[in-house]
Design goal:
- By secondary structure, the protein is α/β, with parallel strands linked by helices.
- It is built from ten helices and 13 strands.
- The strands form three sheets. The chain has a five-stranded mixed β-sheet, with helices on both faces.
- α7 crosses α8.
- The protein binds zinc ion.
Length: about 325
């Protein structure tokens, strides 16, 4: 029998990653391509995706009819029914159609759309989780923002339009004066996302109460150069202000994980995202807290907390796993 193929696409605010793989999803068979996300008009993304798929097919001598499905894992919010992205703050347009324009170029091939974090938890489910974890699994990304994907009782939670588990906008400090990109105050990502860490550091510098000499030295006194990376670097070297910002980041992440465990009673929380470059300052204190004194943060038995191994590849893997599971009618994505 001739081989069949799966296409996976990971659409983010900065990068689009496309992969094509034999339907066995063996790691060594994945051919990848990455490009910057174009934001010229609402069709730029779908045009890029189609071009790259065509290129990959040509380069690898694969015929269109051999593709059994295209999985699109995209930054949200998404409208699963209409197959589009709406209200995304980073992509520049109120509505970005995805499914229809790609369908036009690849008629007859099933196209499946999923919110990126919901896709990523499928990636973890397929490629990383062990059997004991698979039925009650949460993936959390801590990056520019914070997002989540949940598998509970063996089923992926999608919600009414496909945007379930927006955990980063969970309120962790209701009386906070710190406003989130979403408009609310005191969301988890206000304190613990990359953007949050940067903003909290800048704010604290302008208040002038804590010493930030080490941080300022790292950026040559140019505060416009401060990102979460420099704040974590300075904290490691003992910078007082940066240490406080990192402590807050960790504290609110513990609160966030505790809430997630209260809501979903998960076996394992897998953590990924750009902020995990500094996982050594974030995860060990949380793991210790849940081991020694979980009750302050969660009433349920605490979950295991693990760093994902797939790092930047997780979105693409999720998109590939989605097609595999759809094709096989796997129970993790069935509606009942
Ligand atoms: Zn928010």
């Amino acid at each position: 029998m001739e081989k069949s193929y799966i296409v996976g696409v990971d659409i983010g605010g900065t990068w689009i990653r496309v992969g094509i793989c034999t339907s066995d999803l063996k790691e060594e068979n994945i051919k990848r391509r990455i490009t910057r996300t174009k934001k010229e008009n609402p069709n730029s993304i779908s045009n890029s995706v189609c071009e790259i798929i065509e290129d990959l097919l040509k380069e690898n001598n694969i015929k269109k009819k051999k593709i059994i499905g295209i999985g699109l894992a995209s930054a949200g919010p998404i409208d699963l029914e209409k197959g589009e992205i709406f209200n995304n703050a980073n992509l520049g347009f109120k509505i970005i159609p995805l499914k229809r324009p790609i369908e036009k170029k690849f008629p007859g091939i099933p196209i499946y759309l999923i919110n990126d974090c919901n896709g990523a938890v499928l990636g973890v489910h397929y490629f990383e989780a062990d059997d004991r974890e698979k039925d009650n699994l949460v993936y959390i990304t801590i990056s520019t923002g914070i997002g989540g994907g949940v598998i509970c009782n063996g089923h992926l939670l999608l919600g009414k339009e496909g945007n379930a588990a927006e955990v980063g906008h969970g309120l962790v400090e209701p009386k906070s004066k710190e406003q989130c990109n979403c408009g609310a105050y005191g969301c988890w990502e206000v304190f613990s996302s990359g953007t949050g860490v940067k903003n909290r550091a800048l704010e604290s510098i302008s208040e002038g109460k804590l010493n930030a000499d080490i941080l300022l030295k790292i950026v040559n006194n140019d505060i416009t150069k401060i990102t979460a990376k420099e704040v974590f670097q300075a904290a490691r070297k003992g910078d007082k202000l940066s240490k406080k910002v990192v402590d807050d980041c960790v504290f609110y992440t513990t609160v966030g994980f505790g809430l997630v465990n209260n809501f979903y009673d998960c076996t394992t929380i897998y953590v990924g995202g750009a902020m995990m470059k500094d996982h050594k300052q974030i995860l060990p204190p949380i793991i210790k807290q849940f081991k020694e004194n979980p009750i302050i943060f969660t009433v349920n038995n605490p979950p295991e907390i693990k760093l994902i191994k797939l790092s930047d590849d997780i979105g693409l893997r999720g998109a590939l796993a989605l097609v595999k599971y759809k094709t096989e009618k796997h129970k993790v994505i069935s509606k009942n």
